[in-house]
């Protein structure tokens, strides 16, 4: 290190210099930063278009320094399709919660994946509808109490959770479908790597890429941030195992 | 990139050919420089989708058969966000599904062209021609305070002309522009002439999402959490709507000189009424026809003038009487207004309208 000191940590250029509205301990902030770091690393900030969902991350466009659109609830993959089909040179990503992606927007997601759209989906699975105050989501765990499953999710009456990676990876249009988390530094590093590969997959036009992040919602789970990370590790990941669900052969050759 | 997407400009020339309405819509859009088309099959509109599937692909422009009309309108939204000329076409049930996306586009000032080839409703209804979506097309349709410019052709040629114009109008006002026709216009074959193909003269689009290269980032959103900010955005939208009302009123008039009875009808109903009115004139009845071409903005002022000299008005629609409400608003019921409507996809015959006219003229049986 020189006498003046060496800059080893800074805000990524793709991350806006503003205070987010996310609750303390929420993983949204971590994932935002990782996406921004990857955009910087790949040098694509000036040709990236993000699409914000309806959900807690509805204001994501305030937090990234690239062009952004705000989609209707669940429609981000269709909007991304329209952008990418007219401007294949742009790098297009959506950022969506579980209600947005796996409930109201399932149709748009599945068909964008099936068509093999060259877009990247970042999917934040926190098992609740955060923004509207913690209602049951398609990914709410069996037995989990939410404001609209006050007796715990009863799978006989309220059905089973949707496992998005398992479902979407069945589609031939997909190139890279993985599930990661961010509950400890080692997982954060793996998540960062996955996000980078997902963007590279898009840039190499290999097909649809999706990175699911098993996330938390301390506020609506009624937990401290620390407790919520334990819940992610012990309960969420038990139902949503981390791992690679589809990695096309060509992806392995990406550098 | 932009240049290559519009390849295929050369090699077109003006020609007069016999063409089905729906195919003419597709060709007109292509000539207007439509760079992206997204649609979903629904009768009686599907030929637009099929034609576009072939031609857009040939020209290297964007085409996707969407998973639904919800998907289609949001693909249009995405494409239009980049500043591309984008279009979708549908028919009544599909138009209902698009309302969410249209409302978003109106509030985020994103231009596009939407065609509704109306069919019988409500519900699944049928696939026959109808004008039952007038309210939806002219009064907003989706949630929130907005109206879309809505143009109603009565022939295939007029459809072609209005589609081409619709793209320019969408650019001009940064709003979705709709063309409202029905299954008859979609399915009929008529000779049409297309204008020469020119690169469209488009306004600058500094708002478009094209990558924040050498400029600040652009954001396209319809979310304004602060009430005063949202009110300001609404006022901006209302100012655009006021401009549209001031500039874009269109109508056609037939035999209005000395007309004691004035028939008011648009689109297919207007075309059929034209035949009926012509025959009535031949029989010496002082009758004329007023055909709104812009149904939003509705030609209130001109109709008010007409009501000052006419003795009776007859509104003809293929609905239970939707435009009728605008005619009442325009004329404040100063003259007696009669209504003749057919529903469910029943297309009125000229004879039926002629009988109505004769009844009003006191010369009926
Ligand atoms: C058409 C429509 N229906 C419902 C809503 C209300 N709404 C806003 S956010 C949301 C749920 C979002 O949950 P999720 O996608 O899980 O994201 P999170 O807030 O947990 O990050 C709902 C239902 C809406 N905005 N639009
Ligand atoms: S409500 Fe939950 S998901 Fe939303 S910001 Fe707070 S902790 Fe995060």
How would you portray this structure in words?
The complex is a heterodimer of chains A (255) and B (365). Chain A is α/β, with parallel strands linked by helices and 255 residues long. Chain A contains 10 helices and 9 strands. Chain B is α/β, with parallel strands linked by helices and 365 residues long. Chain B has 2 domains: 16-200 and 220-247, Thiamin diphosphate (ThDP)-binding fold, Pyr/PP domains (Rossmann fold, 3-Layer(aba) Sandwich); 251-360, Rossmann fold. A 7-stranded mixed sheet of chain B has the order 3-2-4-5-7-6-13, with helices on both faces. In chain B, strand 14 (312-317), helix 13 and strand 15 form a beta-alpha-beta unit. In chain B, helix 4 runs parallel beside helix 6. The N and C termini of chain B lie far apart (68 Å). The chains are: A alpha/beta (255), B alpha/beta (365). The A-B interface holds A 45-49, 51-52, 58-59, 61, 64-72, 75, 78-90, 107-108, 110-111, 115 and B 1, 5, 35-36, 38, 62, 64, 66-68, 70-72, 74-82, 84, 86, 100-101, 104, 108, 209-214, 217-223. Thiamine diphosphate binds next to helix 3 and strand 5 of chain A.
Topology:
The complex is a heterodimer of chains A (255) and B (365).
Chain A: H1 28-42, E1 48-52, E2 67-70, H2 76-86, E3 91-97, H3 98-104, H4 106-114, E4 120-125, E5 128-129, E6 135-136, H5 155-158, H6 164-168, E7 174-181, H7 185-203, E8 208-214, H8 218-221, H9 225-239, E9 243-247, H10 249-252
Helix pairs in contact in A: 1-7, 3-4
Chain B: H1 2-5, E1 16-20, H2 21-31, E2 36-39, H3 46-58, E3 62-65, H4 69-81, E4 86-90, H5 92-97, H6 99-107, E5 112-118, H7 134-138, E6 149-151, H8 156-173, E7 176-182, H9 183-187, E8 189-193, E9 219-220, H10 227-247, E10 251-254, E11 261-264, H11 267-282, E12 287-292, E13 294-296, H12 300-309, E14 312-317, H13 323-331, E15 337-341, H14 350-361
Iron/sulfur cluster (SF4) binds at residues 22-23, 26, 28, 56, 126, 130, 217-220 of chain A.
